[in-house]
Every structure is written in C-alpha cells, then in structure tokens.
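Researcher: For the annotation table, I need structure tokens for Peptidase M48. Please keep the output clean. Sequence:
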Amino acid sequence: MEEVILPGILLTILIGIAYLTGRVADGVHDRALKRDESLLPRQVLDSGSNIPGDIKLHDTAMVTGKVVIAEDRFRNLLARLRIFVGGRLSAHEASITRAKREAMLRLRTNAKGASHIIGIRFDSAQLSRGMIEMIVSGTALYTDHRPKGGFPSALPDDGVNISHRNLLVEFLSASTAFLLICWGIYAASGLLVEWASHEISVEDEVAIWSQLEPELINHHRTADDRSLAENYLVDLINSIPKAALGPAAAYDFDVVIVPDPTPNAAALPGGLILVHAGMIDLVESENELLSILGHEIGHYNGRDHLEGLGREVVGVALSAMMFQTDAVLTTWIAGWPKLLTDLDYSRSQELDA
C-alpha cells in the first residue's frame, strides 16, 4: 500500500506546487499588463488594411511585437487530460490571450508616435521545450490626427474565446473522467489478458520470448553451460513427477542463479526460473529448495507470469496514450527484462501458487 500512497502524495504535492506557482505568475503578469496598457497613448487599432480617408498621412512604418510563452506544467497536464478524455481544450486559452496582449503591448510601444496601426496580424512559432513565440505585426500610420477614443487594450479581447471556469474545477473534472476511463480500460483489458494468457500454448510462449532477449531467455543451455548449483536446481525440478507438475510439465525448465543478496525468485516466460543468491543462502534443506521451486512452478500453472506482463503492457499503453509520446514505450521496451524479474503477483496468485 505504501508503494501507492507515497507516490500519490508526492504527485499531489508536485501538482499543487505547479498550480500555485503558475497562478502567481499569471496574476503578476496580468497586473503588469493592465498597468502598462494604461500608460500607452490612444491609438486606433484595426486588422483591416485600409487607410482612413480623413487623416493626413506623414509617414508609415512596419512594426512588430514578440513574446515567448513559457511552459506551464499545470496547464500542460490539464491539456493532456482533456486530449485523453475529450471536451473543450481550454487550459491554454487564457495564457494565449495574455501572450497576444503582451505582444500587442510591445508592438504599440514600438509605434508610440503613431495614431493608427492597421493590418494587424498574429502568428506563432513552436520553440523547443514546450515554448511558443507569439508574433504580431502591423503598419503604423503617423498622422497629425490623435484619436480621442481608441482601444487601450484591444486586439485581442477576453470575450467568448476564453473559458472562465476555475482551473482546479476543470482539473478535478478531467482527472476524474481520466481515472474512470483508465479503470474501465484496465478492468476490461484484465479480463482479456487473463483469457489470452490461457490461450497461448507453451510452444508459442517459448518461441516468442526466446526471440526477444536471447541472452536472458536461452533454452539451449546444456549442463556444461550451467554452474554446478544451477544444474542441481534443474535436477531437482526434473525429479518431480510429471503428474505433480500439472500443466507446467510441458515446460523445459531452466534455472539461473542471480548474484543478488535479496531473497527472491521469479518465474519468467518460457520456463526460465530466476533464483537470487540471497534466497539460496537462506535455504537449509533440499525440501526448502523444492518448496521454492514448486512455488514458482505453480505460477506457470496459473499463467501468472503472462497475466502480470500483460497488465504491465496495458499500463504502459495507457501512459503512452496519456503523454502522447513514444518515449514511454521505448523506455519500457529497453527495460523489459528487468521488469520481468520484478513482476509482482497478487495475494490470490501467491496463495494459488
């Protein structure tokens, strides 16, 4: 239980820190924008390209404003949840609008002497590490006409294009939907994995896994390839009557002693049993060794090794879907041999074995 609770608490703390720091930064930026916008002179802002006919034009200039949007971890997490569960992707709407306002502020600062700015266009460019550059350009018109009105914070506004729903409420809604979907997928896939693990023949299992990691799963080892202790353990298994082995009698078992002081043993696909040196050091009789080996053989009869691996595959697939990246799959594939040795079985599986 601690393996679930402690990471959960740590994850909650990290999400909370990301939320608080992001909202503090948002508030500071919003107040700075309002202050700086209020100091700008009145200007007529227009996305059209027509020059007003009632002005006397002295000069024109191309002006631009640029700003880089930094990555907001909390909004990114919320966006990924929404991509997974569906719904309005509103996490970055307020950030994008503030970025447009900041870019407009810089554009207008570059054209302080202009009475009009026309042909306003927004563009963006993807930068590295989740950053985006917002660019706004336009044509500044320098005239003898200073507008009395104007739009001190116009283009863009914060109207219907922005969701005003609280980010925490949005996060709780999206994360609840995500957990329900994942639970449903995991439960349904668990039934499918259980069915599939009993449908795969021993021959197919051996053929598949011997191709994945020949150095780890090698069913062509002879007595000369094994150590004296490994041959002894294999002989112990072979001394068990076939009838007592049950369905596991179809396996051609091999045993590898792992130089690890942790008292543990593992049943890998294809009939390969790993026994840690720390486990052997604790054994005081041949009967205890038979009990350990028999327990691992029991996992083969229950197909627990395939069920556990299948559930791990489902978990990795869900993670890859959530984070929209192949890196999760690549990392898992690179480290799957260690994962096999670390597979945990449920209490009922251990009791059945």
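Researcher: And a one-line annotation?
Model: The chain has a mean pLDDT of 78.
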